[in-house]
Amino acid sequence: MKRKVLPLLALLLTAAVCCLVMAWVDGVLRPGYAVKSAIKLGMFAVIPVVLTILCKLIPMKEIFRFRKQGFAMALGLGLGVYAVIVGGYFLTRSFFDFSQIAGSLTENAGVTRDNFLWVSLYISFVNSFLEEFFFRGFLFTNLKKLSSRGFAYFFSAVVFALYHVAMMTGWFGLGLSVLVLAGLAVGGVIFNWLNEKMDCLYVSWLVHMFANFAINTVGFILLN
Question: What is the pTM of this model?
Answer without folding.
Answer: 0.91
